[in-house]
Design brief:
- The complex is a heterodimer of chains A (749) and B (306).
- With 749 residues, chain A is an alpha+beta fold.
- Chain A has five domains: 3-62 and 117-206, 2-Layer Sandwich (Alpha-Beta Plaits); 66-113, no CATH class; 213-329, no CATH class; 351-392 and 432-581, no CATH class; 627-746, Orthogonal Bundle (Isoleucyl-tRNA Synthetase, Domain 1), CATH 1.10.730.
- Chain A is 52% helix and 13% strand.
- Chain A is built from 27 helices and 18 strands.
- In chain A, the strands form six sheets. Chain A has a five-stranded antiparallel β-sheet with strand order 2-3-1-7-8, with helices on one face.
- In chain A, β2 (42-48) and β3 form a beta hairpin.
- The longest helix of chain A has 38 residues, at 308-345.
- Chain A is extended and about 100 Å long.
- In chain A, 42% of the residues are buried.
- Chain B is α+β, with helices and mostly antiparallel strands.
- Chain B has two domains: 8-208, Bira Bifunctional Protein, Domain 2 (BirA Bifunctional Protein, domain 2, 2-Layer Sandwich), CATH 3.30.930; 215-296, Class II aaRS and biotin synthetases, domain 2 (Methane Monooxygenase Hydroxylase, Chain G, domain 1).
- Chain B contains eight helices and nine strands.
- In chain B, strands 1, 2, 3, 4, 5, 6, 7, 8 and 9 form a nine-stranded mixed β-sheet that branches.
- Chain B is globular and about 60 Å long.
- Classes of the chains: A alpha+beta (749), B alpha+beta (306).
- Chain A binds chain B through residues 11-12, 14-16, 49, 137-143, 149-151, 153, 186, 248-249, 279, 297, 299-301, 303-305, 307, 309-310, 312-314, 316-318, 320, 323, 350-352, 355, and chain B through 73-74, 88-91, 94, 108-117, 119, 129-132, 136-139, 146, 148, 155-158, 160, 172, 177, 274-276.
- Chain A: Tetramer of two alpha and two beta subunits.
- Chain A: Residues 640-747 form the DALR anticodon binding domain.
- Chain A: One of its GO terms (cellular component) is cytosol.
- Chain A: One of its GO terms (biological process) is glycyl-tRNA aminoacylation.
């Protein structure tokens, strides 16, 4: 059982591609081997900046011969049929075998494929893997036509067993496979011949190459933390950076150096970001003060001066970079001191947010109005929320954020504090972007929540108004993320509001702006709106919901266009559709939390479904209820009642909702059900009024036994039509009571 | 290090002799305002077509928005690039490059030299390539690119391009912290000159010019003129009516493309180009570059054969 070793040696492979490339190599080659009939015991892939390596052990020495039989036509079949069979098998008539069966003599083709040697198969599979390798970006070089991530220099490809190693004969675009590689570019550039994987890894290490990326990462982390610890410091953990740096070196040498005194007062995040983005340095923190005081760089070489020259050079580059950062920081602070954050934000009038949605300044004005409106709902002071929204994006105009976009928000917080704004406003500057992803923290401070919601609602309604909704995998404006953001902000903070109303306000803000940018006198006040639209004078969101109930979408567009004096074609998006989109996001979100989709549908079908907090409270109670024995059985009872009733109603063409009369109750089980329904109704109504869904459902659960007993003892479709009608009306009461809690008809099973 | 160069010009001279010894034609700077050495027709146009090519040259380059009135230690609106272009890219180009660093006093055994992913793209030239920025002790000292496409044409064979930021590289080799303090000629010369003696005043003058004084109307007009002229030259029939020869004016047209590109950079520095317009201008320059590339491959140097 030979072992296979492959090394593809090239010029420097981008760090971010190495791990996946190694995995791709393993997959392509091992899949190809297995497909060609070569099984193996194990395979492992490795990567360094200059090499992709695959080691396969316990490979079959050759594939098994394959014998294939194909049944053909009868021996006396027409000439054409036999010719066709010969063509498809590639055989001649005399190579066919004749066999007798019940129907006569049948022709058989027996095709024997001999086994092939591992070397032959490996050469074929590897060539195909190289030629079809899925690099995210590949290139040609010189005069050749081969594509690789960077020029490919050599291929090491050997099969080895106890007897020794043999080179797999293979040539691709002038590169002939061999059994040699090279060590470290500078420390051991000579050719090294290897005989197998263990020999390869050991010889590479002697030639200053650590083959395994995780071993390099461990070495780096170990040395960095040790050096920091020796000085009473700690390395700021950054796994992404560690993985990247491990992909930039073959022989990691950790060097720690000082950050100039002049820069230590910069915000730690600025130091960290600058060092990481530009230099790929780790930050080293003083645990006592929280300040970043030193840096760690990882060199790829050991030098005679123990890295002194390298460290000095890196320190110099860092100083130049941090001088820039310091310059930006000081300029920004000066701007804030002279003109305040509002002054800093001024330039945003010239920055386009989206060519159909106006400038950043337009956007901020809309968000501010919306934030003030939402403020009361989240327990924030409207003026403070408005103020926060007005300055929350000022830092986009700062020099620091211009240089380091990742610091947006955070710099806003620093600059808001420097401008003497309240802590709540400063926090909102940073937090209003959150949550960015499903696991990101959700802000809890009321002002931050108000601005964050306003920001996201403005974005969503804006792109809905201009009809740039996400489709399939395309979501260039991250609207799904914004939608999830709204949901998480509302749910985590138990915000109670009618989302539809806020969406209407958001939408209105865009229409106002559209009209303004179209250069129209904006007289689109609500009174005029009411007149044009022919609805009673009210606030815009009431007007909108009134319009929705009266007109179809086209009519709505035309009336809105008239109201805002803009072309009807520019009005395309509609808020109910946006609410549906948010409900869909909510379903996905709740599904991840273990609430089944039919439970959500049952709750979505209830009135007030744009109050997400209420909706989820209901859904959680219902999901919990359905997990109980009572809940599950009650659901069956409800379904049975509902089925019988629906069939009867359809057949009779009437609705049995007159109310059942206990005086027609004949049997004990029937009477008991009346009593139980009275009791349940009495308990459910106040519970629902207090939105205590759990209590309402507990009360509903008490119906399970009487309903079960009723169905066991009582025949609904009695001969006596009075009794029958009364019983159907009784079922109708069951239905009404159950449906007052959630639309149980939407539930599966 | 006794072998260490002592001045900015010595570093340039050593690069010149190093690449001359490796067989490159040592060309002179192109006599027009360009943003980078890549714009020199010896790179942009010669990267096209099938003919082998090897050239090295210094190219004075201008980036109007980078002007800092000579005050910033590293930023200049006028600076020098050293450019090497070899087609087809030789298999040992990385080693050749490392040899050039050794020639200017950077000993690879003492420094940390790294090839860090950096894909190069020039939207104005309709060009892109894959390669690295080369780091020496954490500092970017060169750009190393395998051209894949220029002017919208696939490069076949592929050219290898090396671009050295001369000031930055020289400052590092010479151990100088402010560019204006860097010795331009040998400090032992009878008249020692520093970089600042040569360029401080011009940095001031051009900074003022680029940011505030250049006439935007004139720049806009010149841009339009260059654009029109480029198209007009390329529209002329291939056969010269006077000599009767086939003379496609790819280079004169390309000069107009270079002009348009620089005028756009100046307009940008003057702050009169909005974000949306920016893309449109870049697209217009790219269209010129593409048209010039199309014309060049119809010429003899571009591999055309009658």
């Amino acid at each position: 059982m030979p072992d296979l070793l492959i090394e593809l040696f090239s010029e420097e492979i981008p760090a971010r591609m190495q791990v996946k490339a190694a995995e791709d190599l393993r997959r392509l080659v091992t899949d190809g081997l297995v497909e060609a009939g070569l099984t193996y015991a194990g395979a492992a892939a490795f990567s360094t900046p200059r090499r992709l390596v695959l080691s396969v052990n316990g490979l079959l020495a050759e594939s098994k011969p394959v014998r294939e039989e194909r049944k053909g036509p009868k021996a006396d079949a027409p000439e054409k049929a036999i010719e066709g069979f010969l063509r498809s098998t590639g055989l001649t008539r005399d190579q066919l075998v004749e066999r007798e069966d019940k129907k006569g003599t049948i022709l058989f083709a027996v095709i024997e494929k001999p086994g092939r040697t591992a070397a032959e198969i490996v050469a074929e599979v590897l060539e195909k893997a190289i030629r079809t390798f899925p690099w995210p970006k590949s290139m040609r070089w010189g005069a050749g036509s081969l594509r690789w991530v960077r020029p490919l220099h050599s291929i090491l490809c050997i099969l080895s067993d106890e007897a020794g190693a043999e080179v797999v004969p293979l040539e691709i675009d002038g590169i002939t496979a061999g059994k040699t590689t090279q060590g470290h570019r500078f420390m051991a550039p000579a050719q090294i011949a290897v005989s197998g994987f263990e020999d390869y890894e050991a010889k590479l290490k002697r030639a200053f190459v650590v083959l395994r990326a995780e071993e390099r990462a461990e070495l780096i982390w170990h040395d960095a933390t040790n050096q920091a610890f020796a000085q009473g410091l700690e390395v700021v953990e950054d796994r992404g950076l560690l993985a990247e740096v491990a992909g930039l070196v073959e022989w990691p040498v950790v060097l720690m150096g000082p950050i100039g005194e002049a820069f230590l007062d910069l915000p730690p995040e600025v130091l960290q970001t600058s060092m990481k983005e530009h230099q790929k340095f780790f930050s080293v923190r003083n645990p006592k003060t929280g300040r970043i005081e030193r840096f760690v760089t990882v060199a790829n070489i050991e030098t005679a001066d123990n890295g002194a020259t390298i460290l000095a050079g890196n320190g110099k580059v860092l100083s130049a970079r941090l001088s820039d950062a310091k310059f930006f920081w000081e300029n920004d602070l000066r701007t804030v001191a002279d003109e305040g954050l509002t002054g800093m934000a001024e330039g945003l009038a010239n920055v386009t947010f989206h060519n159909k949605l106006g400038s950043q300044a337009d956007r901020i004005a809309r968000i501010a109005a919306l934030a003030a409106e939402i403020a009361q709902r989240v327990g924030a002071d409207p003026d403070e929320a408005r103020k926060a929204a007005e300055v929350a994006k000022a830092d986009l105009q700062s020099e620091m954020v211009g240089e380091f976009p990742d610091l947006q928000g955070l710099m806003g917080r620093y600059y808001a504090k420097a401008a003497g704004l309240s802590d709540a406003v400063a926090a909102a500057c940073q937090e209003h972007y959150s949550p960015l992803g499903p696991s990101d923290d959700v802000p809890a401070a009321p002002v931050s929540v108000a601005v964050a919601l306003a920001d996201k609602i403005d974005t969503l309604t804006g792109f809905w108004v201009i009809n740039e909704k996400p489709t399939g995998s395309k979501d260039p404006f991250a609207l799904r993320r914004a939608g999830l953001g709204v949901i998480r902000l509302v749910l985590d903070n138990r915000v109670r509001f009618n989302l539809l109303k806020q969406l209407d306000s958001g939408e209105a803000g865009h229409y106002w702006d559209l009209a303004g940018r179209a250069g129209h006198e904006i007289e689109a006040d609500e009174e005029r709106a009411a007149k044009i639209l022919g609805v009673p004078h009210a606030d815009f969101s009431t007007i909108r919901s009134e319009m929705r109930s009266r007109y179809d979408e086209k009519e709505q567009s035309q009336r809105l266009a008239e109201l805002f004096d803009i072309p009807a074609a520019s009005i395309v998006g509609f808020v109910p559709d946006l609410l549906t989109f948010l409900h869909d996001r909510l379903k996905v979100f709740l599904k991840d939390q273990g609430i089944p989709h039919d439970v959500i549908d049952a709750c979505l079908a209830m009135p007030g479904n744009d109050d997400l907090t209420l909706l989820v409270k209901r859904a959680e109670a219902l999901a919990a209820f359905l997990k109980t024995d009572d809940g599950e059985n009650l659901l069956q009872g409800f379904k049975r009642a509902n089925n019988i009733l629906s069939q009867a109603e359809e057949k009779d063409g009437v609705e049995y909702s007159y109310g059942a009369d206990p005086k027609w109750a004949e049997m004990d089980e029937e009477k008991a059900l009346f009593t139980a329904l009275d009791a349940a109704e009495a308990a459910i109504k106040p519970a629902m009024e207090q939105e205590d869904f759990a209590a309402a459902m507990t009360a509903m659960a008490a119906l399970r036994a009487p309903i079960d007993a009723f169905f066991t003892a009582v025949q609904v479709n009695a001969e006596n039509s009075v009794l029958r009608r009364n019983r159907l009306n009784l079922l109708s009461r069951i239905r009404t009571i159950c449906l007052s809690v959630a639309d149980l008809t939407k539930l599966d099973g | 290090m006794s072998d260490a160069p002592r001045s900015f010009q010595e570093i340039i001279l050593r690069l010149q002799s190093y690449w001359a010894a490796r067989g490159c034609a040592v060309l002179q700077p192109y006599d027009m305002e360009v943003g980078a050495g890549t714009f020199h027709p010896a790179t942009t146009l010669r990267a096209l077509g099938t003919k082998a090519w090897a050239a090295a040259y210094v190219q004075p380059s201008r980036r109007p928005t980078d002007g800092r009135y000579g005050e910033n230690p590293n930023r200049l609106q006028h600076y020098y690039q050293y450019q090497v272009i070899i087609k087809p890219s030789p298999p040992d180009l990385q080693d050749l490059y490392l040899g050039s660093l050794k020639a200017i006093g950077i000993d690879a055994a003492m420094h940390d030299i790294r090839f860090v992913e950096d894909d190069w793209e020039s939207p104005t030239l309709g060009a892109w390539g894959l390669g690295w920025e080369v780091w020496c002790d954490g500092m970017e000292v060169s750009q190393f690119t395998y051209f894949q496409q220029v002017g919208g044409h696939d490069c076949h064979p592929v050219s290898g391009e090396l671009t050295y930021g001369l000031e930055r590289l020289a400052m590092y080799v010479l151990g100088v912290d402010h560019v204006m303090e860097m010795p331009f000629n040998d400090p032992q010369s009878p008249i020692p000159l520093k970089y600042g003696d040569v360029f401080r005043q011009t940095e001031e003058e051009y900074s003022r010019h680029n940011f505030d004084a250049a006439s935007t109307e004139a720049l806009l007009r010149h841009f339009e003129d260059a654009e029109a002229e480029c198209a007009r030259l390329l529209d002329a029939p291939a056969e010269d009516p006077k000599t009767g020869k086939r003379i496609i004016m790819a280079h004169p047209a390309y000069d107009q493309c270079i002009k348009a590109s620089h005028l756009f950079n100046l307009l940008d520095a003057r702050g009169v180009i909005s974000v949306t317009e920016r893309q449109a201008y870049i697209g217009r320059v790219r269209a010129l570059a593409k048209a010039c590339a199309d014309a060049f491959v119809q010429t003899e140097a571009g591999g055309w054969a009658a």
